[in-house]
Amino acid sequence: MDERSRDSELEATIEELLNEAGIHEHRGLIRRIISTGIGLGQDGTTRLNLKISAAALEEMRAAYRLFAPFSDAPKVTIFGSARIQDHDPLWVEAEQVSRRLAERGWMVVTGAGPGIMEAAATGAGPEHSIGISIRLPFEQIPAHLHASGDRLVSMKYFFTRKLMLVKESSGFVCLPGGFGTMDEVFELLTLQQTGKMVPVPIVLLDRPGGDFWRGFGDFVTGHLERLGMIARGDLDRLLITDSADAALDEIVGFWHNYDSLRWVDERLVLRVKHVPSDAEIDGLNERFAHLVESGRIERSEPLPVERADGDALDLSRVVFVPKQRTVGELHRVIRALNELPSAQDSAAAPE
Q1: How many domains does the chain fold into?
Q2: What contacts 151, CB < 8 A, 6 or more positions away?
Q3: 65-85: pLDDT as tens digits
Q4: How confident is the model at residue 4, as a pLDDT?
Q5: For the chain, what is the radius of gyration of the CA atoms?
Q6: pLDDT on residue 351
Q7: H runs (alpha helix) in the chain
Q8: Segments forming the whole domain that contains residue 64
């Protein structure tokens, strides 16, 4: 049998398997996953690489199933040291901000470990907590999180855990921590700077009077920015504070008017809860002309492709064609949209 005939027979077998499994939605994507797995076998991939690939996919499936019942709830991920004790002011800060977010309907996602993670889960309570733990020989999952088995998933790999700690959340609060916390903070900044993640609020929260994050800011501006390794103002996309009140306001306030975004070809569509006035649109054009590749910032009804998909049709739109290298500055546009006079009559969490 030649290669073309063998491939056709294999495709037919996969189609039959999908039918037998009762898979009717997203068949193309499921087909790609199956074909990739078979391809790994055909490539003679080593056992170790196959184990990594299989475990990663299994862990992602478990995490997707964990999050699925809570898809409509806004979520915030809280990072911080596993070594903080319950008498530390940082513990109190994490517990306080988590409790107040939960009171507003937010779910709190943590790494399901001790320290700041335990403080955040405690503040949010079992009904508003989701844990993504990592299996380490020297670190135990707090007992009260074990009791909430339907809100907890355990992972072998840091990269799959990091994906799920970031993917579902609409805000992030980072308290002081070690290598792991700093890794998570820099990953968030990288994803935001490169436009590989939609804009979200990021708060670096310290103990009252603390200088941990101020020192971090001094390093970033004094070395990375000064040497041209990052752009001037890259750190402006996050809030450095020692106030739980300010952290809460930053997370909730980011979604005051802004709701979501979507790319339609080269156009960026920003969905907002309040219709901006002509004068406000003119002001946005004056302020952000340097971000626009062609044309101008316009108010818009849902675009045809959005109407076809039934995508957030009740919201107004602000549409423009951004320059490729300016997507990292979208947080400035979003903050401006939230500050418009037309948007000052209500506040809301993301849908």
Answers
A1: 3
A2: 66, 126, 129, 130, 131, 145
A3: 999 999 999 999 999 999 999
A4: 78
A5: 23
A6: 47
A7: 3-20, 27-42, 47-67, 89-103, 116-124, 143-146, 158-167, 179-194, 212-219, 244-253, 278-288, 304-309, 330-338
A8: 3-68
